[in-house]
Amino acid sequence: MQYLAEWVASMILVQAKVKWRAKMLEKFIVVAYALRDLENFDSLMGVLAGINRQTIHRLAETQELVNQRMEGDRTKVPKRLRSLNKLMSNQKSFSAYRLALANSGTNMVPYLGVHLQDITVVNEVKKDMRDGKVNWSKFSQMGRSAAIVLDCARVAPKIEVELKVEGCILGVPLLEEEVSGGIRVRSLRTRLGR
């Protein structure tokens, strides 16, 4: 997910003109809609994380242009994007995501971060033994969280990897945070019109 978020932000920021950045941002918003429709919550979280990075959010001209362009017939972008952000929000322990997951079909892809967090929290909070006996409650809770991910892998359809698409994503150098001219510096320069 982290790589996908950085890739999304990099693809937007490398565009030299405001209208090109806006067009790229629009494309990623449309991709986010498609990922939600496909119930691919893990990739959806990655794309949303890239769109919502501070380096993208501060591009006020780009954001305004996207809002103007997509207001018309493209299903009220700001409202729908807010609903996707609310769906994947960590509020109330990801309650909206958990509800959507419970109502998903068998071809969904869960957001792994939530389930790994659940396993980690249960492991840290509950003891392995209680009153000299194995704490089956702990292992049962961990098992339920793991089962969501394992069941997904078991019933998911086999999807062929398109090597060209994979190369377009993995073969692109990302803007690095620390490097001079990196993602943060480029975002600030873009905002200031340099």
Describe the structure.
The protein is mostly helical. The protein has a domain of 124 residues: Ras guanine-nucleotide exchange factors catalytic domain (Son of Sevenless (SoS) protein, Chain S, domain 2), CATH 1.10.840.10. Helix content is 66%, strand content 2%. The chain contains eleven helices and two strands. The protein has a two-stranded antiparallel sheet with strand order 1-2. The longest helix is centred in the first third of the chain and has 20 residues.
Report the principal-axis shape.
elongated
CATH topology title of the domain at 2-92 and 160-192 = Son of Sevenless (SoS) protein, Chain S, domain 2
Q: How many individual helices?
A: 11
Strand content: under 5%
What's the order of the H and E elements? HHHHHHHHEEHHH
Give the name of the CATH architecture of the domain at 2-92 and 160-192: Orthogonal Bundle
CATH-defined superfamily of the domain at 2-92 and 160-192: Ras guanine-nucleotide exchange factors catalytic domain
Described by strand count, sense and barrel closure, the largest sheet is:
2 strands, antiparallel
The CATH first-level class of the domain at 2-92 and 160-192 comes to: Mainly Alpha
How many β-strand runs?
2
Share of helical residues: 55-70%
> Which structural class do the helices and strands define?
mainly alpha
Write down the overall mean pLDDT: 86
Residue ranges: pLDDT <50 for 5 or more in a row? none
